[in-house]
Structure of Drug/Metabolite Transporter (DMT) Superfamily:
Amino acid sequence: MKKYLILVCIISFAISVSSGLAKNKLCTKDFIKMFPLFTTSFCGLILSAFFARKYELPNRFLSGVVLLLIFYGILLWYSIKNIKVFTISLFAPSKLIFTCFLIKTFGSLKLKKIQYLALFLILLGVLLPILWSIKSKNRVSMPISHALICLASGMCFALANFSYEVYQKNFNPYLWDIIFSGCITALPITAFFFVLEMLKAHMSFQRFLHQPNLIWITFATYLELGSKAIVLLMVNTIFRSIVMLLQSVSIGLVDSIFFSREFRPIDLLAFLLANLGLLIYDYRALKNIFHSKKVAEDKKDDVILKTQVCENGDHQTKNTEKRLKLTSNI
């Protein structure tokens, strides 16, 4: 990976963390959470219409992936409105455990001993605050229902991620074709739930437009999505998962240390354990980032050496053939 890609990832990381913090702080409990999902589907459909190669309705497989992502988005926005930011970020590494479990069960994933150790550290980091809350007399800090919602969100994301990988391998579609077909499914569903949520809140459209911080929350949401999209397009698959998860957990850590009054040392310990396990699991990707240039040079030297050996071998073969001809003539 080139150095400018690392710089882009760092800038994207900073933008995502700051915009995510702004979104979480500005969002109130009466905010219509389906509005960002609806506008994302609407804007995605319009944008992909200019770049898509095929304009097709989605098949059942892709529709299932879209439904999982919508359900994941609903859980995510519910978490933002009702659950502490640090609790959300604390359970972000659990997505990796669920994904590995699905690939191990239905795919051909082979884990090494150090990766099993990494998964154990992640699992320990996820379960530690729950066990501490159960043991503690004051259980208000982390209700079990909040932990279950975060785990359900992680499981939903893992299912969508695994299903998309299967869809990608079987159909190998163009990226903008996927976005166009997916938004066709997502737009009517998100529009239905958007109207339903407004009716349930007894909110008129005019009152909704005058909702406090509506523009800023929407702007922060798209800024966060844009920064994540840059990472999605610039880096490889393994390092992408590291960056995305670190973005999520860093939002919670910064919020808990600088803005929250309910910070607990056990939460910081769990955060460090979970992310240490995440880094250990993908240590090869981090190593390749900083040593990719050396590896490329070594491969280049190997190619040059092999070429020289082949050329010398061909030269020796030609000399041998000439000697045989002279001997036969004699």
Summary: The chain has a mean pLDDT of 69.
